[in-house]
Amino acid sequence: MRVVHYLNQFFGGLGGEEFASAPPEVRDGAVGPGRLLERVLGQDSQVVKTVICGDNFAAENPDVLKEFVLKEVAACKADLFVAGPCFEAGRYGAAAGALCVDVSAEIGIPAVTGMAVENPGVDLYRQKLYIVDSGESVSAMEATLSKMAAIAAKLSVGQEMGAPTDDGYIPRGILRDGFVEKSAAERMVEMLYAKTQGAAFQSELTVTTFPSVPAPPPVIDISKARVAIVTDGGVVPQGNPDNIAHTAATTWGSYDISKKNDLKGEDYEVAHRGYDTRYVRQDPDRMVPVDVMRELESEGVVGKLHDQFISTSGLANPLANSRRLGQEIAQKLKDSGVDAVILTSA
User: Fold this and answer.
1) Together in a domain, 146 and 228
2) For the segment 53-95, what is each residue's pLDDT rounded down to a tens digit?
3) Burial of 284 (0-12, 13-18, 19+ CB in 10 A)
4) Are 10 and 157 within one domain?
5) What span, in angstroms and rounded, lies between the C-alpha atoms of 129 and 113?
6) What is the DSSP-derived secondary structure letter of residue 284?
7) What pairs with residue 28 in β-bridges?
8) Pair (140, 235) in one structural domain
9) What total number of domains does the chain contain?
């Protein structure tokens, strides 16, 4: 097989975050993990091209990256497209998943990737792709690439994939009919009996559950409280200094309002594509109500408006990534002595 491999700036050998804005480039042959990929694919396969792109560039310019990759894949008449593995790198995972979907749909060749279950790319693309669970540690690179190679081998010859536990990919949430020896009633009774006996059993339908989050205690005296504004509506200063992605954002920003009584449209933009942003761009106070909070502050209703507001984009953001962003933001506010938060959403 002729293989095109996609890597981010780190695994492509460019460097760390200082190269996250690097535009896509192509190199002949295998680079970095691609050399190991060639080995696990076998002697009849070759990585003919490696595309390398910075994570920030990929997140901010998905259409440019898509066009670049599709052109390279078509030009070298590739038989397989491989992205990653990405482990827990969220921007990397989101880009890898999107490119695999695009290549498979528009070029018509198999595409496979790998990433940790908590990577936001999993929730975004698990139903459209076969994604190998890489785990969190890069030390699992060889094992992950071996599973990716095995899936690629099956896909390349049109062989039907087995169950996730058999072929080593993350469950896609798709149910398929199959022949079994025991009826549903018999299997259900066996599982119920095992459960009552405290024995191990495997459910045939995994129900999505969410941990219960207890409500925090109320603020005793809001007139003495420090209150912060947090939004997932994507309001950011002009130029988007933290490069917050409009969709599936993996970062957030904190912006100074210590000397502002309201926000001016010419000073801000909106990093969000999930709603009509015209009215917020006209008056950012509609999403980040600094003007009203200053009035409440002057009237003594609240003790003090926090000197910074925090913003990110909540559009199409997988639960695992949203949880991580929330934990980071909460820790930042706790460290800053904030007592309460006004949370606004698009």
Assistant:
1) no
2) 999 899 889 999 999 999 999 999 999 999 999 998 888 999 9
3) buried
4) yes
5) 8
6) G
7) 49
8) no
9) 2
d(CA 6, CA 69): 9
Nearest to residue 148, comparing CAs of 69, 104, 85?
Answer: 85
Examine the domain organization and report whether 105 and 247 are in the same domain: no
Name the 3-class secondary structure at 242. coil
Strands 111-115 and 268-270: unpaired
Task: Tell me, yes or no, whether 8 and 154 share the same domain.
Answer: yes
Query: Where are any strands of DSSP class E within 171-301?
Result: 226-231, 235-237, 253-256, 268-270
What CA–CA distance (Å, rounded) separates 226 from 88? 34
Cis peptide before 120 (omega within 30 of 0): no
pLDDT tens figures, 175-213 = 777 788 999 899 999 999 999 999 998 887 766 666 778
Range of the domain at 78: 2-167
Q: Are 6 and 93 in contact (CB under 8 A)?
A: no
Which 3 state secondary structure label does DSSP give 279?
A: helix
Q: Phi, psi (5° rounding) for residue 165?
A: -70, -25
Q: Residue 161, SS3?
A: coil
For residues 171 and 206, the answer to whether their CB atoms sit within 8 Å is yes
| 215: its two tokens | 């409500």
Token pair belonging to 289:
């109500």
What is the spatial distance between Cα 111 and Cα 286, in angstroms, rounded to a whole number? 43
CB 132 within 8 A of CB 144: yes
Would you say 342 and 232 are in contact if contact means Cβ atoms under 8 Å apart?
no
